[in-house]
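Incident review: delayed structure delivery

Summary: a single-chain prediction request sat in the queue longer than the usual turnaround. Root cause was a stuck worker, restarted by the on-call engineer. No data loss occurred. The affected request and its eventual output are reproduced below so the record is complete for anyone auditing the incident later.

Affected input:
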Amino acid sequence: MSNQWPHDPDGEQGSEGMRKYGMAVLAKKLDEDEGFPLKAAEFVEEHGDEPVRLNSKRVVSVADIFEHVGEGEFEDIVSFHKAVGNAMRSGGFWEFHPKAGESNIKHA
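Output delivered after worker restart:
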């Protein structure tokens, strides 16, 4: 673990042993039932220095991602995911870019 992070990027608060990446790590920090509406500034104040693993080699902070979020408040989890997903794509943090007609399904 790097000393720059408040917790292990691959521990239970992070990627859970590299099983969760990007948006899945961020979603773990939310309380869908009681956490909304949610102010972006409050989320960053609470979680800004925490790590988000994007792939097997790249880890960034929550604050790095939120530098690209334009919305100041999220009404629900769907609006959070839309805004943060757009921010991750525009900021170069989105690691999966499917092409039309591609599928994750692997045929035998």
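Verification: DSSP finds four helices and four strands in the chain.
Action items: add queue-age alerting; document worker restart procedure.
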